[in-house]
Amino acid sequence: MKQRSLVVATGIAIAFLCLTLMIQLRTQANLREENRSLRQQIAQLKAANESLSHRVARAKGTLAPRLPAPPMQVTNPPSALATEDLQPTNRIARLIDKEPKLTPEQVKSYLQANGRNASSLLAAYRTSGDKALLEEAMEKYPNDPQVDFEAVFDKDLSPEQQRQWLNTFEQSAPNNALANYLSALNYFNAGQTDLAVQELIAATGKPQFQDYTANSAQDNEEAYLAAGYSAAQAKALAFFPTPLQPETLGIKQLGQDLVGLANSYQQTGDHDSAQAALQMAMNLGQQASTGTLMIDQDLGRKIEQNALSAMNPKDPYGDNGQTVQYQINQLTQQRAASHELDALADPLMEAMSDQDWVSFTDRMQAFGEQAAFQWLVNKHGQN
């Protein structure tokens, strides 16, 4: 009996050992399979990464026109540009029965409450037009990117001082492509085409195109509220500049300069550099079209159209088998739809309540002016 029990126990032990061995072997097999699969995934990721790197390298290559650049004819400076297709959104000031410029007394009270920091000084300058406030901000906060951005457009600066502020803006906002674009425009105007091209190459791939519209609007709104404006008036006036903004004119001119540069390269027989200059113009237009205001979006699309119009309309564009002409048609349709929406919304704004104004500007700040206009048309267009 004992011997039989011993045999049974031994059999069970052997069976257990066999089962354990089988589990270990299966586990090892599964691990080997998982390792093999992981190695394949790593290899695929490595290959994809290398492919992406090659594509990026090739893309960067196409975005580097040959230097020295050929002579080119510089377009008129921003102050002399025609603005028939860039009318500002001044309907807000027209609808609000109150002078939008703050008085010295109103500004003084606002600044006392906000400690005369960089943002409050700039808001006081924008809402009052008092140049001394901008100068104070430039003196106290020279490394603030919003101060540098405003300083770049100071008409009283000498060319040397403007160049200094452009350099400072690039340093204070290293990821903002707009700093490089404005610097390139300055170099184009000075006839220093090679330096302009280098700035445009530096702008390529930068993640931001920031004109500080949202920040400025928030600060302006606080200044108007402190001066006694209603919430609706303060929000509306804060977001919509009455005069055409200088950076808008500057970006328009830069787009023209890039097409002119492409033409200069083309005349010398350098087709690759011409295409690179046109691609830079495309990048500029695409980044400008990400702006909050419809005027900036329309300008960006117009810059893209101008660049595409200098290409062969039958050439392929993008990775979807489309042509240059197809993309031009798409941009034309987008601009037409934007203009139609603007025409529908304009008469509706006169009947907006204060709460409508608050909702409108809140939507605009969150989703952009076009989305706010669509909301307005959807709510009041059928009435």
Question: What's this model, at a glance?
Answer:
By secondary structure, the protein is mainly α. 71% of the residues lie in helices and 1% in strands. The chain contains 17 helices and two strands.
Structural write-up:
It is a single chain. This protein is mainly alpha-helical. It has a domain at 312-383. It contains 17 helices and 2 strands. The chain has helices at 2-62, 91-95, 104-114, 118-128, 131-140, 145-152, 159-172, 177-189, 193-203, 213-226, 231-239, 246-267, 271-288, 294-309, 324-345, 354-367, 369-380, and strands spanning 316-317, 322-323. The protein has a two-stranded antiparallel ribbon. A hairpin with a 4-residue loop joins strand 1 and strand 2 (322-323). Helix 4 (118-128) packs antiparallel against helix 5 (131-140), helix 7 (159-172) packs antiparallel against helix 8 (177-189) and helix 11 (231-239) runs parallel beside helix 16 (354-367). The longest helix is centred in the first third of the chain and has 61 residues, at 2-62. The radius of gyration is 30 Å and the shape is globular. The N and C termini lie far apart (101 Å). The model is unreliable at 27-62 and 77-90 (pLDDT under 50).
